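ESCALATION

Customer reports they have been waiting on this structure for their group meeting. Please prioritize. Original submission:
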Amino acid sequence: MPTSPVDPSLFPDRALDPALDPALDPEINPRTLTPDQWRSLLSAPEYAILRESATERPNTGRYLADPGPGSFHCAGCGHRLYGAEHKFHSGCGWPSFFQQVEYGALEVHRDVSHGMVRTEMRCARCGGHLGHIFQDAPQTPTGQRHCVNGYAVLHVPEGNSVAEVFRAHRNDKWA
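Update from on-call: job pushed to the front of the queue and completed.
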């Protein structure tokens, strides 16, 4: 079982429990995790975005620049969402993709919050909020711009293990 480099007893309200991490164990149903369990796994911005549907300010999140070949996974549960080949620079201030890695990787819902009608996208595995889909990218093969909060995803470089990338990321939040 992986261990944290920091003694979790020092953080009793946010004790890192890798045994509950759906990104490290695909047998765990992420939809059964409590808010406290999610808080123990996610950084504050990840929790706010994925579990409370917040939005990071433009140009402040991860992956505005191209991180290279690989895939993008839900930062909550590790579900594969996008291939690096689907990423493009839209200039909107958030990472943009033109399609999901495979049909069913995302759930989409009508979002009428903030006085607008938009298409919200969520991770199909854990239900975490990712961002919104817009039909304003004619330069892409689909015409779509998946406007993704950078803190909602993790890039797994080509050739790397998803579990190892997530284990390192989870441990980094305690560094």
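Sent to customer with the following note: The two ends are 19 Å apart (CA to CA).
Escalation resolved.
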